[in-house]
Amino acid sequence: MEVNGTANILSSAYLAVEFVDSFLPENPLQEPLKHAWNHMLQNYSKFQIATWGSLIVHELIYFLFCLPGFIFQFLPFMQKYKIQPDKPETWEKQWKCFKMLLFNHFCIQLPLICGTYYFTEFFSIPYDWDSMPRWPFILAQCFGCAVIEDTWHYFLHRALHHRRIYKYIHKVHHDFTAPFGMQAEYAHPAETLILGAGFFIGIMVFCNHMVLLWAWVAFRLLETIDVHSGYDIPLNPLHLIPFYAGARFHDFHHMNFVGNYGSTFTWWDRLFNTDSQYKKHYSLHKAVKSD
């Protein structure tokens, strides 16, 4: 019964996306992208695309999205948007973070990435251009993946804060009480595996093309780097996403250590009232600011 209910929900969601998609114009970049994609398929094997392509996508997007936050520290006019201005980034902190990232990316995540080809083969996930869904479907699937990952992240993240195990694993991620973008994947190797597992659940539910895997990687990295950026930038397009947590919400988690356990959305924290200290803190902050 539960499986049928889930299938009906997914079918309704796809019908809604199809309806919206019917009103949207053709993508002007479709032909260049088609040419580039087919060129990749003709010159590289599926294993090379799945393994080295996924590694390049991850590394390129991660450090590209980290770049704006890295530059912000040198721009005086951006400091008014820094959430904890009394705790600036230092070269020492950033170098410590970078070394841990290299270890996690190449010693923990790379072996997992090497399994991508076998994952796509097991689930018969296509690579060809003709099977690729249009971008509204990809966006909808990424949103679905984010909902699943956020649920996994909330409960496992909250469990990692339990006083009996916190100091052994999750404390590493809290080395910095004022986060910065590059710190998004700074974590104990065990945490990388535990919380990272949530990333793959959505893929197993929604993935119907190799491009979704890369799109979900891009979206998840953009989101986690944004919430760890330490800057509350006005007119941030990610804030258009319903119930999006954002940098200020997650920054408080690093500053306070308790509450605000969600990764992308705020609904689980609202439901379980684990954002109560955050609400109290920022209502006081707004009152002081208005005075």
UniProtKB/TrEMBL annotation:
<dbReference type="InterPro" id="IPR006694">
    <property type="entry name" value="Fatty_acid_hydroxylase"/>
</dbReference>
<feature type="transmembrane region" description="Helical">
    <location>
        <begin position="135"/>
        <end position="156"/>
    </location>
</feature>
<feature type="transmembrane region" description="Helical">
    <location>
        <begin position="192"/>
        <end position="217"/>
    </location>
</feature>
<protein>
    <submittedName>
        <fullName>Methylsterol monooxygenase 1</fullName>
    </submittedName>
</protein>
<keyword id="KW-0812">Transmembrane</keyword>
<feature type="domain" description="Fatty acid hydroxylase">
    <location>
        <begin position="144"/>
        <end position="274"/>
    </location>
</feature>
<keyword id="KW-1133">Transmembrane helix</keyword>
<feature type="transmembrane region" description="Helical">
    <location>
        <begin position="100"/>
        <end position="120"/>
    </location>
</feature>
<dbReference type="GO" id="GO:0008610">
    <property type="term" value="P:lipid biosynthetic process"/>
</dbReference>
<dbReference type="InterPro" id="IPR050307">
    <property type="entry name" value="Sterol_Desaturase_Related"/>
</dbReference>
<dbReference type="GO" id="GO:0016491">
    <property type="term" value="F:oxidoreductase activity"/>
</dbReference>
<feature type="transmembrane region" description="Helical">
    <location>
        <begin position="60"/>
        <end position="79"/>
    </location>
</feature>
<keyword id="KW-0472">Membrane</keyword>
<dbReference type="GO" id="GO:0016020">
    <property type="term" value="C:membrane"/>
</dbReference>
<dbReference type="GO" id="GO:0005506">
    <property type="term" value="F:iron ion binding"/>
</dbReference>
<dbReference type="Pfam" id="PF04116">
    <property type="entry name" value="FA_hydroxylase"/>
</dbReference>
